[in-house]
Design brief:
The protein contains 10 helices and 13 strands. It has helices spanning 4-16, 19-25, 30-44, 60-87, 106-117, 130-139, 201-213, 227-235, 282-291, 293-299, and strands spanning 49-51, 56-58, 92-98, 121-127, 144-147, 156-164, 166-171, 181-182, 191-195, 219-224, 241-244, 255-260, 268-275.
């Protein structure tokens, strides 16, 4: 088989049609150049160049081989560059798990930012509930997760990447829609759409704590898992609900959003989670990007 160095010698000679200029282009002397081309022709089994005392000409076989030789050299350079980029964390892929709620507003911002700042990194996105993401991180199915606390696995590292308020989602014809903001007491003894403990434990516990702290007891409670299902019931007039601010982007007809005065003001948290021992070279560059103050402002 021939070597890449032999291809480079042949391409240079075919381009220059002069062995002296080709040797100078490759920073070598003429005899080694001639020897490399002879070895190449022996490996190929055909004359690639015709050389006389006055000229150098590419043979028909040489013209056909020249096209492929250039392609092989380009591929070899591309492969080396790709390997270097991946080793340096400048290229590669990231597999990201996310919950449905994270996909409403935050995830599109994160995707646009990553594609802008890390254009050579491919993103693979997987919608998964929090429990599935933990399993996916531990088994290597995903590199990063976007989900709600708690995060109690010692193998995982996490970063709180977003804090947002809860909003009241109420029917547009509900008298409370005429108020600019609501208190938790405005839900007392009123129909309410609540989060299920099966599949929405984080939001169920968060809302329950807030209501119990103010001794608020809604009535005719419906239990749902997905935020879009909750908003559908609100739109149908079955009651009010508390949803993260990002849910406004769903634009349900007949649903009005109002600020709820809570302590803390932004109780909904979203975490970026990854394995402490991740060997994905892209990870360090991605985390460095995420931790910059400008990025935090952009993603807020």
């Amino acid at each position: 088989m021939f070597e890449l160095s032999q291809l480079r010698c042949f391409v240079a000679a075919a381009d220059e049609l002069h062995f002296g200029r080709a040797a100078a282009r490759l920073n070598m002397t003429q005899p080694p150049l001639s020897r490399q081309i002879q070895l190449l022709e022996r490996a190929v089994g055909a004359a690639l160049l015709e050389r006389t005392s006055r000229s150098v000409r590419v043979t028909p076989a040489g013209r056909a081989f020249l096209v492929e030789a250039r392609r092989i050299l380009k591929l070899s350079e591309s492969a080396a560059l790709k390997a270097w980029r991946i080793a340096a964390g400048k290229a590669g892929s990231l597999s990201i798990g996310f919950t449905a709620a994270a996909g409403y507003n935050f995830l599109p911002k994160l995707i646009r930012l990553t594609r802008s700042q890390m254009p050579n990194v491919d993103l693979a996105l997987k919608e998964m509930v929090s429990g599935e993401q933990v399993e996916g991180l531990l088994t290597g199915r995903i590199d990063l997760g976007l989900f709600r606390p708690p995060i109690d696995q010692r193998e995982l590292e996490s970063l709180c990447i977003l804090q947002e308020p809860l909003l009241a989602a109420i029917g547009s014809d509900d008298p409370r829609a005429r108020q600019r903001s609501l208190r938790l007491q405005d839900f007392d003894k009123k129909p309410f759409i609540m989060y299920s403990t099966d599949g929405a434990r984080y939001f169920h516990d968060l809302v329950t704590v807030l209501l119990n702290r103010e001794q608020v007891s809604p009535t005719n409670v419906q239990y749902m898992t997905q935020i879009h299902s909750i908003l559908a019931l609100v739109s149908a007039g079955l009651g009010a609900a508390m949803v993260p601010a990002a849910a406004q982007s769903l634009h349900f007809d007949g649903v009005t959003f109002r600020v709820i005065r809570t302590t803390p003001e932004r109780p909904v948290e979203l975490y970026l989670v990854w394995r402490k021992d991740s060997d994905n070279a892209v990870m360090s560059q991605f985390l460095e990007l995420i931790r910059t103050p400008a990025t935090k402002t952009l993603l807020a």
